[in-house]
Design brief:
The complex is a heterodimer of chains A (272) and B (195).
Chain A lengths: L34 H11 L9 H15 L5 H22 L14 H27 L25 H10 L18 H14 L2 E3 L10 H16 L3 E5 L6 E5 L10 H4 L4
Antiparallel strand pairs in A: 1-3, 2-3
Helix pairs in contact in A: 1-4, 2-3, 6-7
Chain B lengths: L2 H11 L6 H5 L7 H18 L3 E6 L2 E6 L4 H4 L13 H13 L2 E2 H8 L4 H9 L3 E6 L7 E5 L1 H6 L21 H4 L3 H9 L5
Antiparallel strand pairs in B: 1-2, 3-5, 4-5
Helix pairs in contact in B: 1-3, 5-7
The chains are: A mainly alpha (272), B alpha+beta (195).
Amino acid sequence: MTVGTPARASSTPRGRSPLEGIEPFLVELERFQGPLDLLLHLIRSQDIDIFDIPIARITRQFQAAIAHGLDDMPLERAGEFLEMAASLIRIKAQLLLPRPEKLEWEGDPRAELVRRLLEYEHFQDVVHVLERAESQRGRHFAKGYVPDRPAPEGMRPDLEVSWRDLLEAAKRIPEPPPPVRIRPPSTAVTVEEKVSLLRGLFEKAKRIAFDRLFKPWGTRAHAAASLLAALEMAKRQVLRIEQAGPFAPIWLFLGSGAPEDEDGEPAAERDT
Amino acid sequence: MTPEQIVEATLFASQTPLTPDELARADDDLTVASVREAIQALRDAYEQNGRSFQIYELGDGFQILTRPEFASYLERFDSVPRSPYLSGAALETLAIVAYRQPIGRIEIEEVRGVSASSVLRTLTDWELIDVVGRGEGLGRPLLYGTTQKFLDHFGLKDLDELPAPDELPIVLEGLQDVEPEPEAADEGAEVEASS
């Protein structure tokens, strides 16, 4: 059930030539809002007297109509059509039962269906009134309709940063380590070590998130060495460094050529 | 400054319909009555001078809109997303809500013969309908009614502008001849635009 599309398919064309006995009655199920819409279409397009619906014929046509489209339908929608088919068959069965002659309409099992169909048709008329009103209203325009003049090229500063960006970036800054934490002097971190780490990683991955390089160690020495290694390799055009925007994650790519896909994955993964 | 000028300036500067009450706030000397008078005077003046716009009454407010004859010119600027035309399902649901409000989801589904929950959600999101209360039945179901935005969307002053049930081609009252059951007779009486 889509809302907002201009397609209007609920209208029930009337006054078509009666199709007596022609079955199956081919209709596009998609066009109908639901079982009542379809049923009303079958009745009106064949000039059937709504107060004397030939239930057997209509039931056959209804079943034939839904037989084609049912499989492609969402379960709920299919269920709505099936429910109607079932109640048509029930009415048909009730009509076969003998009933007292004098109780004409009161006992007619079709009465409730006729009431629903007429009620539905009534609201179809309201729908047409609303449609007309909507399109008439659409011809009136309010202040602010004509679009603003587009900003001239080059007026847009590239490095515009919102408070939200800044806050997001600030939130990514790791918590400072607890102040009293004495650890034995770690072995010196060398840039060469990081270069070989990077080379090793690039054998497995096409791109590497920069912060992954030093997170496992969590010290500034590792971060600094990683940065120097990355910069050194970028200088030698072994890899290139990309960042989609200020404070965005930094990605390292193997090779120095132009990015393979401009709007590829790294940009999409900015938020992760 | 005349009341007409003040009302005109306020309407001119607004992008949404304004009620007489809101318009009267523009000046201490303005009252709801004098605002209405001023609006009528402005309308007449626009009409006589052949202006391309007019003051229209949408729901309980007034707004300056272009006249329909100018639509084809303005549509050339159609780069702004406009409120889309509603789908058949949405219109069907709105029709039922407009005539039977306050009404719950179950009753709407009974008329349409199909589920209405997703349409109701969309229409509520678009503020064309709103929850106006809760029913008495099991689980105190939500009851829906149309909004000011509904009137604006269809360019209506109020719900009375919708045709009364007996002005529609299919008259529900006719059912009484066919089916003398009391429920069916009640259905006819219920189909009245309640505001």
